[in-house]
Specification:
single chain, alpha/beta, Rossmann fold, 3 domains, 16 helices, globular
């Protein structure tokens, strides 16, 4: 996690058109609109305001701005990038994660751009810092989604495919990164690791002096989103490095297809698979991500085989896997992503090769609340849930705002945003120990329990959700 932003009161004052304080709730907030009608406070009060002073140009916070083009757009990426940079500079905005509205008077962007998204500011917001426009250097990434589905590589005797292949960024994974909620810092840690791993190799750092393998191991209980996080990470990196690599691919290895019915053939199948992967990475403009899900099925501990509890063929599989992964180290444009539910079953030599061994556990209370909140908002969007008494669509408060307002008099409002958010918070508290997969299934199970599924108001649904959560927790504990 990056170090918290330093607060300084002795640096030069902010630009004249900037507000002294900004409370940012949307993705981008006009800084000048916050206090334009208020008189300027005395200098003493300005010094007391908790505002981060402007930074030197080379000390600005880099914030990623992802620009998704329409599938039909033929505009040059460099032209779109320049147009977005001009738009951001002209609007004097503060930066928070989320979508950015495209100005109605910008016909070029409206014609070519489907979505503009601010990313990577979550850690600053967690530390109650607002990134104002003069502190930020936006890094604009322009991309289009591949609409091709996964391609399959047939296995021996045309049985199971040995791997699935996606061209990235893929339409199938659009929005996946944002939907995954973990403790603050985990996703940023993975992004920064990948950037460093690619940079070290490209700059020719001597691996005999500084060691790294470009291997990630995510481990933890089932249902916590490890595989989805690997796919989302590959998608995100394909966007971030699009200007450096003209083509990006995700190879998802089908581990079960690599075990042959013929004794001693499994090691040869692993070698054959990695030979195909090596052919892909030989193209320098191609960035390849290799995903091995449940890697313990391939990298089983050799000690178990030696003791006789595993067939000796598994030793050949582990040896072949380690040998092939070591060969890939010489190529700068490949990253291996692995997951495991049982880390104790993985060969220690493989674990030792992983640069990052990140535990992905059950979601925290905040993550549980935000997961359920995203589900409720989706049901409201499509009209499956309605606002009580026929009113407008309610705003389900985010976790931080709800915690701040818990002692406010708004609690008396029977069907308001605070009331609905409090019920959702109660459901999130009950769901301790449930995986992210189970949490996203919970609203469906709750809806299946309501008396009138075709017309269900949000308040009634929240009470049903609480009862469903109690039942699921009770059943999961036996």
């Amino acid at each position: 996690m990056s170090a918290p932003m330093e607060i300084s009161f002795s640096a030069p004052p902010p630009p004249p058109d900037a507000a002294c304080t900004v409370v940012a709730t949307p993705a981008l907030v006009p800084a000048a609109a916050v206090s334009s009608s208020s008189p300027s406070p005395p200098p003493q009060q300005q010094q007391a305001a908790a505002v981060v002073a402007p930074s030197p140009a080379d000390d600005k916070v880099l914030v990623s701005v992802e620009v998704l083009l329409h599938a039909t757009s033929a505009a040059r990426h460099s032209d779109v990038q320049a147009a977005v940079e001009r738009m951001l500079e002209a609007r004097s905005l503060s930066y928070v994660d989320g979508p950015v509205p495209i100005p109605a008077d910008n016909s070029f962007l409206i014609e070519n751009v489907k979505k503009i998204q601010i990313c990577d500011t979550d850690e600053w917001v967690e530390n109650h810092k607002v990134l104002l426009f003069w502190q930020v250097k936006p890094v604009v990434h322009v991309f289009q989604l591949s609409e091709d589905g996964p391609g399959e590589e047939p296995g021996e005797d045309d049985t199971l495919s040995t791997f699935n292949e996606w061209a990235l960024p893929a339409k199938e994974f659009d929005g996946l990164w944002e939907s995954l909620l973990y403790e603050v810092g985990l996703k940023q840690r993975l992004l920064r690791y990948a950037a460093s791993a690619l940079l070290f190799t490209e700059r020719g750092v001597d691996p005999c002096l500084v060691s790294w393998n470009r291997i990630v191991l995510l481990h933890g209980p089932p249902g916590t989103g490890k595989t989805s996080l690997c796919k989302a990470l590959a998608q995100k990196l394909s966007i971030r490095f699009k200007s450096r690599y003209s083509m990006c691919q995700l190879i998802e290895v089908n581990a079960h297809s690599l075990f042959s019915k013929w004794f001693s053939e499994s090691g040869k199948l692993v070698a054959k698979l990695f030979q195909k992967i090596q052919e892909m990475v030989e193209e320098e403009s191609n960035l390849v991500f290799v995903l091995i899900d449940e890697v313990e099925s391939l990298a089983a501990a050799r000690q178990a085989a030696i003791s006789g509890s595993e067939p000796s063929d598994s030793i050949r599989v582990v040896n072949a896997l380690l040998t092939q992964m070591d060969k890939l180290k010489s190529w700068p444009n490949v990253i291996i992503l692995t997951t495991s539910n049982i880390t104790t079953a993985i060969d220690i030599a493989f674990v030792d090769r992983a640069d990052i061994k990140a535990y992905v556990g059950p979601p925290t209370l905040q993550a549980r609340y935000e997961i359920l909140r995203s589900c409720i908002q989706e049901l409201l969007r499509v009209g499956i849930l309605t606002y009580p008494q026929g009113g407008s669509v309610p705003c389900i408060l985010n976790y931080s705002t709800l915690r701040e307002k818990q002692h406010c008099p708004e609690a008396a409002e029977p069907n308001g945003s605070f009331h609905l958010s409090s019920l959702l918070y109660e459901a999130a508290e009950l769901c301790e120990g449930l995986s992210g997969r189970s949490l996203r299934k919970l609203p469906f199970l709750a809806h299946a329990s309501v008396a009138n599924p075709s017309c269900c108001d949000a308040s009634t649904f929240m009470h049903t959700l609480i009862q469903t959560a109690k039942r699921e927790i009770s059943e999961s504990r036996g």
